[in-house]
């Protein structure tokens, strides 16, 4: 918008000039009168400027500006209005901040704000009850000085916070906390902490229930299988009408036994997050034994099973758990590869650690299933799994056995072409490279 200078200029200059001219008419000296009029006008301006300066210097939020006339009156009023408007906006913002702080303070979950160095900036009441933070003493302290769990230190040291961390509360180790960090602003971190004790208890109850039921079902199953065996051994004495049902009963009893074994193994694997006793495991001979069993499983299907294993690459871990994991992968390759197909097993080490891959030329898996394969009882094709004697627990066992060995499973597959299952172990999981013979 174009500012009209002329109006205010005329309004402020015309009165002193007119007064000077009028005085000049009386005194008969226009020059001095005009100069005197303008000097008085300048003095008045200076006086108004000093009043404004004084008001601004000694400014109090509720103090109105000095009264003024003409242009100065408008300036004083304009400034006052701007200040009042700012005050109102600030008041509204403060009210919003107060409400946010009140509601976060009332949250049951702990909310903690950390600066870019991981020092405490702000936290709510729940952070005091869950983590034992003290207001205001702990302000500015590094959070790792106050929560001293080693897992927490390792979690804070990493840069990827996609996964939440679970750990016992520093105040009470029966409380289980789940921690999640989100970055915001200039590297600041927002930490949310939830009490998940109840969820953990329910999960434990479920695990105990499955383990107990599996255990209790074993005895009656052993009795049934025990009666079936002699009956089928003496098949000639059995009424021919009963032979087929008896055979099926034995097959199903065998399947149930596998299922219970897998459930119990999974329950044992899930009972702890890490390995209890760790020993050097020579993987190459373990794989050789698995290949033999796989060949037997393949039977007349005549799969070509090739093994390429570094014989000196020894892993720290539990041989039984690793054996279950690896055999599940190899047996799956046999089960899901048509007759005559090829299965390649490779065990090798490099800078990233040790790796075991099982590659087959089988039926493959559609990509939409890949992320769910390690879930319990997840099957791509239930009817096919049933015909191959699968329990749907194999890959869940693999996943948990790998977690115990700080490993992870990678799956790549293409329908109709085959699948590649790779287990990766970090260098810290390697025992040693023994100076033995050549790769088998
Ligand atoms: P199952 O006992 O049914 O084999 P798993 O947990 O071992 O259960 O495997 C889950 C599902 O993943 C299987 O039902 C099967 O559909 C698929 N699967 C596993 N391994 C392979 C493979 N090598 N080739 C194709 N599909 C596979």
Automatic annotation (TrEMBL):
<comment type="function">
    <text>Member of the two-component regulatory system PhoR/PhoB involved in the phosphate regulon genes expression. PhoR may function as a membrane-associated protein kinase that phosphorylates PhoB in response to environmental signals.</text>
</comment>
<dbReference type="Pfam" id="PF00512">
    <property type="entry name" value="HisKA"/>
</dbReference>
<dbReference type="GO" id="GO:0005524">
    <property type="term" value="F:ATP binding"/>
</dbReference>
<dbReference type="InterPro" id="IPR035965">
    <property type="entry name" value="PAS-like_dom_sf"/>
</dbReference>
<feature type="domain" description="PAS">
    <location>
        <begin position="89"/>
        <end position="168"/>
    </location>
</feature>
<keyword id="KW-0808">Transferase</keyword>
<keyword id="KW-0813">Transport</keyword>
<dbReference type="InterPro" id="IPR005467">
    <property type="entry name" value="His_kinase_dom"/>
</dbReference>
<dbReference type="InterPro" id="IPR003661">
    <property type="entry name" value="HisK_dim/P_dom"/>
</dbReference>
<dbReference type="Pfam" id="PF11808">
    <property type="entry name" value="PhoR"/>
</dbReference>
<dbReference type="GO" id="GO:0016036">
    <property type="term" value="P:cellular response to phosphate starvation"/>
</dbReference>
<dbReference type="GO" id="GO:0005886">
    <property type="term" value="C:plasma membrane"/>
</dbReference>
<dbReference type="InterPro" id="IPR050351">
    <property type="entry name" value="BphY/WalK/GraS-like"/>
</dbReference>
<keyword id="KW-1003">Cell membrane</keyword>
<dbReference type="InterPro" id="IPR000014">
    <property type="entry name" value="PAS"/>
</dbReference>
<feature type="domain" description="Histidine kinase">
    <location>
        <begin position="212"/>
        <end position="429"/>
    </location>
</feature>
<dbReference type="InterPro" id="IPR003594">
    <property type="entry name" value="HATPase_dom"/>
</dbReference>
<keyword id="KW-0812">Transmembrane</keyword>
<keyword id="KW-1133">Transmembrane helix</keyword>
<keyword id="KW-0902">Two-component regulatory system</keyword>
<keyword id="KW-0418">Kinase</keyword>
<dbReference type="InterPro" id="IPR021766">
    <property type="entry name" value="PhoR_N"/>
</dbReference>
<dbReference type="InterPro" id="IPR004358">
    <property type="entry name" value="Sig_transdc_His_kin-like_C"/>
</dbReference>
<dbReference type="GO" id="GO:0006817">
    <property type="term" value="P:phosphate ion transport"/>
</dbReference>
<keyword id="KW-0472">Membrane</keyword>
<dbReference type="GO" id="GO:0004721">
    <property type="term" value="F:phosphoprotein phosphatase activity"/>
</dbReference>
<protein>
    <recommendedName>
        <fullName>Phosphate regulon sensor protein PhoR</fullName>
        <ecNumber>2.7.13.3</ecNumber>
    </recommendedName>
</protein>
<keyword id="KW-0067">ATP-binding</keyword>
<keyword id="KW-0597">Phosphoprotein</keyword>
<dbReference type="Pfam" id="PF02518">
    <property type="entry name" value="HATPase_c"/>
</dbReference>
<dbReference type="GO" id="GO:0006355">
    <property type="term" value="P:regulation of DNA-templated transcription"/>
</dbReference>
<dbReference type="Pfam" id="PF00989">
    <property type="entry name" value="PAS"/>
</dbReference>
<keyword id="KW-0547">Nucleotide-binding</keyword>
<dbReference type="GO" id="GO:0000155">
    <property type="term" value="F:phosphorelay sensor kinase activity"/>
</dbReference>
<dbReference type="InterPro" id="IPR014310">
    <property type="entry name" value="Sig_transdc_His_kinase_PhoR"/>
</dbReference>
<dbReference type="InterPro" id="IPR013767">
    <property type="entry name" value="PAS_fold"/>
</dbReference>
<dbReference type="InterPro" id="IPR036890">
    <property type="entry name" value="HATPase_C_sf"/>
</dbReference>
<keyword id="KW-0592">Phosphate transport</keyword>
<dbReference type="InterPro" id="IPR036097">
    <property type="entry name" value="HisK_dim/P_sf"/>
</dbReference>
